[in-house]
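Handout, section B. The chain below has 252 residues.
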Amino acid sequence: MFNGQSGRLEGRYYKSPRANAPVALVLHPDPMYGGTMNNKVVYTLFRCFQDLGFSVLRFNFRGVGRSQGVFNNGIGELSDATVALDWLQNMNPDAKQCWIAGHSFGAWIGLQLLMRRPDINNFIAVTPPANEKDFSFLAPCPASGLIVQGGQDEFVPPELVATMARRLNLQRNADIDFAMIEDADHKYSGHLPDLYKISGQYIIRAMQQRTPTKKRRGRRKKSEMEEDLLLENNEIGEQEDYIDDTDMEDED
């Protein structure tokens, strides 16, 4: 629990044992459609960052779960996200990078936060609701990122998200990756492992680009091989061992 502007906010936090570990904040879907921090897409992103050595936080917006307050149509939720990021950074003052990630409504909030916080280095936006929300504020988009969309999404038309990604990449100096998981629906049912691997591969690639090293011959570092094996072998899915210490839900 940590203090928000409308009362206490409930979250789940993982502290990396690595010195100067990067940090990531993961935001959940629309509370008006049942979105919570226990959403399976949110948890998949959380686990991906955790497994790659980040200190990572997911939390419930105001009025959700044990978080105090009432839904505020995105305005209050953006304030909640700002407070959550401040809390995460205060807990990790020496973090070498800062990431924001979100699903649906959470992606919309996360991208607004990105525009207000130059300390955010990268983002992952899963199914940004391009049919319901205005993303024209991304002009220009201040950081590189990954946009993921399900090809069988029943709520957000895939072609609108693809168009959004293309438009962002037309901006000068923009570097936006776009991944379409062709058979995935809005909840990524049966495709959470795909989301995990696509996100993880992007994170590793982006981290390597921001910390370039000299070309070398011979064997790769042990940490690099462990990261590759992690992405290949970690079985994120909908089986029982996927569930953490909370009841996972199928909202939004």
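Note. The radius of gyration is 17 Å. Compare this with the example in section A.
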